Amino acid sequence: MAICNRLYFCGSQPIDSHSKVVFKEANNSKCARFTRWVKWGVQLPIVIPHMIYSIFMMMKHKELIAPLRANLLEGRFVHRVVLTPTKSQYVITSAKIANQMFKSYRNDQNGLFGFDEKGNVSLLFLSVLQDIVNEPVNLNDFLFTCDPAQVECFREPMLNFLGPKNMPSIRAKLDDVNQDMLGYLFGLEEYGRIQVSAKDLCGMYAVSVISYILLGKRASDFQEYRNISNAIHECMTYSVSKLWKKPEKEQTHKYNRKIEVLRGVIENSQGNFLDLLKNISEISEIQRKGIFFLLYIGGGETAASLLEFIFWQLGKRSDLQTRIVKEIETSNRSETLNKVVIEGLRLNSPTLISRTPNKDVEMTVNNKTGKSWKYTFNKGEDILYAPYFTTRNQSALKDYEEFNPDRRDLPKQIRSLPWLPFSLGKHGCPGKFLGLAEIKSMLSAILMNFEIVSGPQNLPKQKQILTLHLDSDVTLNLTRRT
Ligand code: HEM
CA nearest 204: which of 237, 172, 182? Predict the structure, then answer.
């Protein structure tokens, strides 16, 4: 299907290090609209088979990575995936284009980006929030979908609380979480060995960090976090699958039970972060609950998915484990661990990031050394940026599918990863510092106590519903270090 993308846009799409990307409202004169309709008519014979193929791929794989991948062309940076004859989705594989797009607010009715009224991912979140608070909510109640006037009032306290200045106190709390997790693991030990599911362990860990550090709840038994982790996963899976198929009664009962779990933790939150939010008069109670829900969504499966992937990789590389342990023993920090996390983020950036134009938008790429080109995105059609695909650009890296933290061309600084795994700009991840700190903290805690062997040997399938995760469980066999 990549061939269709060659036919939709026949020219090449070069982007060099000096290129400038500009987004502006597309020319909407009668003549321009007529030209677009003619183009649509000419392309229709390609569009129909392309659409059938895309739908077939989605039904076959029941995920997004493989179908999207089938649309990508090397050396191209905008790829079209046809969903219906009149509606497409675009996949962008250039961080330069994404960077420019991220300068806009997600929901600026006067700007270029806003929301598609139907099927937008934010509306999925909204329906779950509505069930959690048990009363009607609208887009303004949920700050994830915020317009420019609301963005800063929700992001500023979050960025302060989770920023570098607060890291010493956050690191101390991460030590508490590690103690709880290690206590749980030691309890599973039989003859010095433990076998755990990486998904289960990392899911509980990521949720424990949000629960304890942001919602002020430290569970007396580490396994209590499993309930919350499962509840988030089940609720979001239910909401996504509801788009395709009417849920059965039993599924709805199960969903309602999980909603109660989430309602319980969110309503009983306490602590410094809650106090901080309560002091901001512009934030209503529903919005506050929406923020907590969003923190679980934003900080739960993302961090867990990355941890799971890194554990799986480390479990096959005892040499890396030995290096990390030696470095930490000698200097209390590990350069190898840093590289492992960067390489993990390169191969397994866990999210697809989307924006929806609320008018027809024209993008121009001006290259200093070569040809300039334009692309028009239609109103209401999602533009996805996928760091996962950007880092698999074959021309950029040798052996790009291989997990190799020692590759020379890897960036050294975790804060400036060029493929933007945390996005940036108006909605860049506010949990970036916490996420990186918790990932390193959990990996160190486990590696200093255990040797890891992981299975399966071959890459488990990578699946995407909202967050990329490994399909078929990764098992960690842990042996206590002597
Ligand atoms: C490895 C870990 C993580 C990765 C890769 C990651 C990545 C991302 C990405 C790509 C976005 C989308 C930004 C956009 O739409 O432009 C995002 C948003 C967000 N993340 Fe993270 N994240 C991680 C961990 C966390 C953690 C631990 C938290 C919890 C504090 C968190 C909280 C959020 C929130 C609240 C948003 C929404 C921001 C907004 O809409 O303004 N994330 N994250």
Answer: 182
